[in-house]
Amino acid sequence: MKHTGLKSIFFLLVIFLCCNSVVGQRAGDLSDLFVSPPDHAKPRVYWWWLYNRVNEGSITRDLEEFKAKGISGVNLICTGGYAGEGALLGVEWLSPEWRALYRHAIREAKRLNIEIGFNLAGGWTMMGPWVTPDKAMKKVVQSEQLVTGPVTFSKEFPQPETVDNYYHDVWVQAFKIERQTKTVHPETAIDITDCINSEGRLHWDVPEGDWLILRTGYTLTGHPWSKWYAYPKGDTFEGGDGYEIDYLSTVALDDHFDHLGKLVIEETRQAGGKLAYLWSDSWECGKLTWTQDFPEQFRRFRGYDLKPYMAILAGYTVNDSVFSARFRDDFDRTIQDCVAENFYGHFYELCHENGMDVGNEAGGPNDTPPQDALKNLGRCDIPAGEFWVHYKLPEDGMNSRKSARLNLKQTASAAHIYGRREAQAEAFTQMEQDRTHWSLGPYELKPYANDAFCEGINRFMLHQATCQPPEDGKPGYEFCAGQHFTPNITWWEQSSAFFSYLSRCQSLLQEGKFVADVCFFLGERPPTLVPPKYVVPTLGVGYDCDYTNAEVLLTRMSVEDGRIVLPDGMSYRLLYLQNCVSPVEEICKAVGHYQQLKVLSDPSDAMSLPVIKKLRQLIRDGATVVGAPPKRSAELNGYPDCDKEVRKIAAEIWGDLDGKTRTERKFGKGRIIWGKTAREVLLADGIQPDFSYTGQTREPEKFDYIHRVDGQSEIYFVINRTGGTEVGDFSFRVTGKQPEIWDPVTGEMKEAGSFEQKGGLTGLSLELAPYGSCFIVFRKSISKNSSGKGVPNFLKYEKVKELSDSWQVLFDKDWGGPGEVHFDKLSNWIDSPEEGIKYYSGKATYRKVFDMGNVQKKLSHAGERLVLDLGDVKHVAAVRLNGKELGVLWCSPWRVDITDCIKDTGNILEIDIVNLWANRVIGDWKLPVEKRFTKTHDVFRFDMLRGSTPLTDAGLLGPVNILRGL
Prior knowledge:
This is Glycosyl hydrolase. The protein is of the alpha+beta class.
C-alpha cells in the first residue's frame, strides 16, 4: 500500500519548490566561478568544541583563520571522545558560561560572514540527559511456551529480555501450532493479554490442541551506542550523556527539539545571528525495531494489521516460508519508513518551521536498521555521506579501497534524484593505529578527494577542527580521529592552496546537472542501499548512472521526448530494473558489512502494485525500461489478489517476451526490453560511452571521471588514480565545442591546442601527474569538422640544470632545530643522526645561490618556459626566487614557472619546506616533560600515535632541477 498522507504531500511539494528555486542559480560565468569560487562552493569544517574547552579568543581565532584560508562554514559539534587518557576541563555544557560563548560564536560568524550550523546533541546523533527510556530506542522482545490442551495454564510466564529495568507488554497471544513444522495459523490467534496479571502470572484455559503462547513486549535496545556515557566510559562529557532518542517516534524528536533545539535557536536570536542549519551526524547507535505506536505505524504504512503475524518474529512460520519472509520484509519496510518520515522527515519540518535548513548523514554508516537510505537523504537540504583515508595507499598506488567510500555514490544519487544542489561528504576521517594524528599532508589527501568528486560529491565537510585556547600550545589536544584542519597544524599558513583546489573543483561540480545515461531501480526489498561507484556488469566502462528508490519512481519521474525526467531537470535514457543493491556478491557483502545488514545480490522478483502501475504509465509515455517482469507483489497488503494483479499487469507490459529469443517490444510510445544489458541497449541506440581512453577495458579503474552539463556547457572532471605520471588518449561524447583544459591546482585555463572530432566524439591527449586531475570544459561552439593541430596539450621537459647539491638549511631553534646547517646532498630529515633534524616538525628554509648562464640562449623557441622542479616534497613548499614569491606547491608535479624571474648570475633560491607534527611529538616523548617543544597528550588513545610509531618522511627530497618546457 502506498502511503499518501498529508505530510508526504507537503514534503514532496516543498521538494518541488526547492528544486525549481535553484535551477539556473549562478552568479557569473563558469570561468569566473572557477577563478573565484563562491562561498557555497568552499569547504565547510566540523568545528569540535571538545569537552567545551573553548574561550572567546579561541573562537575568534578559528573563525578568522577559517575565513582567511578559504573555509566558508563551520558545523559546531560539542562532544568528548578525545585522543588522550582523561577528559579535558571545559565549561559546563548549556550553562550560562557556555551560552555566552555560543552567542560569541554566533556574533563572530555573522561579523565574518561565515555560515554556522549546529549538531543537535552532545555527541554525534540525537541524545542527551533529558531522553527518558520512554523516548529512547527500543526493540521488540518475546518469550514463548508450547502447551497442549485442554488444560488450565496457571503460572508465572517468563518476561522477555529486559534492558535497564525497562519493559512494557504489548500483547500476550495464543496460536494453534503444528509442532513438527513450527507452523502457526494466524486465523486461530487469541488475544489473552487480559489473562496475565501485573506480576506476570498467566491464567488461561487452554483449548484442545497444540498451542503457542507468545508474550510480546518492548525494552531498550541495549546497543553499546544507544546510550552515551561521559568519558572515559563513553565518548561524551559530563552533562551531555544520555540515551539516543527513539528514531521511529515524532514524539521523541519533538521532546529532544524542545530541550535543545529551542534553546540554541533562542540563544542565536539573542546574539542577533542566524543558524544556517541543524545537523544530525552519522548513525552510530545500532538497530531498533519498535516504538510505542508501532502497530499503528505498521497499519498506516502497510495497510493491514501486524498482530496476527507476530509469531513470525519469534521464528515461526505463518502459512509458508514465502509468506513469512514477505511479512518480515513488510516489518523491515515499516521501520525504514518510520525512520525516513518520523525522524528525518519530521526533523526537516521542524528546521524549516524555524527558518533553517537541515543536514544529516542520513544513510548510515555503521550498525543501522533496515533503511531506505535514499528516502532518508531526500529529506535533507544537505544530504551527506563520509569517506575515510589511510596512511598508505595499496602497492599499486591506486585508492581501490571502496570500503572507505561506500556511501558516496548513495549520497550523490540522493542529491540528484531529490533535486539537491549539494552532495556533501565528511572528508578525510582517519582512525589508524600509529598514524591518525598529523601524519598526512595535502598531497596524501588528494587521491581520496578526487575519488569522492568522481563518486558525485561536490562539497566537503572537513573532518575536523578542534577549537582550543591558544594558551594550550601546539599542536594541542585533539579528538581521537583526524585530520586536524586548525590554525595549529604546521602547514596552516600554506593551507589556502589546498582549500583553493577543493573549492575550484566543488564550484564546477555544483554547476548544472549530473550526466547519467541509466537510472538503476533498486527495487523494494529492504534495505534500500546504493553501492559505491564501480564498473556495473550490465553497464560496463565509460557510462555513468544514478540509483532510484520506489518513492522517486512513483512521485517524481515522468517522460519527455523519450527520456525519463525529474522536476528539477535530471534525466536518463534508460530505467534499468536491477531490483537489488548490486548483482555482484562482493559489492553486496561490502555494503552489508558496513551497515551490518543482510544485502542480497540476487534480484528480487517482487514489485508492488503502485510501482508496476507507474512503470506501465512511464513506458506508455515513451520511456525505455530494461529488466525482467515481476512474479508477485512486493507487499502482503491485499494478498493473494495483489499477486494476481501484479502478474496481470506484467503480462500486459512484457507480453510475449521471454528474455532469450524475444527480448524487446513496443508498449505505447515506449519500449520494454528483457534479456539485454543496459550497455547493449545504449550501443544499439547509437549512444557511445560518455568517457573512454585507450586501454580502458584492460585497466578500467586507471582513470575516472564525472560529467555535468550546464546549459550549453559540458564539464568533465578527469582523474589519474595511479601514483605515476600517465599520458593517455581520451574521448568525450561531445562535438561542435572547443575543448578547454582547466587545472584546479593552479587555476590555469587554456584551450586544447591538439584535438580531433570524429564519430560524435572529441578526442585529445592529456598528461596527468600522479593522482592528477583536470577539467575538460566544452563551452565555445566550433565547426563539427574542425580539429586542433596546433600547440600540444602538455609540454615535454628536458633538464637544463640540476640543483640537488649544497644547500644551506635553516631550522627553527624554538622547535628543537639546530639553526642553520649545510646539506651536501638533499636527504630525508628522519635519516639524520642529529635529533634536532630527525624529529623536527615545522618550517625549514632551504637556500641556494646559483648561476644560470645565458638564460635567453636556453629558450630557443617562442613559448618555451623554464620551470623549477622540486622532485619530491614532504609535505608543502613555498618558493621564492630572487625575492619574488612564486607560490605554494603541495602536490605533484612539484613544479613552478621561473621564466620571468630567473637571471644569468647570482640567483637566490629560497624554499620553505613544511612537514607534519607527528615527528616532533614522537621525539618529545623521549624527553622530560619540561624539555619538550610540543604540548599535547602524553598518551594517545588506541595507540594512534606513540613513541614506537615510525617517523613520517620529511624535507625536500628532490632531485631539484631546472627544466625547459618544449
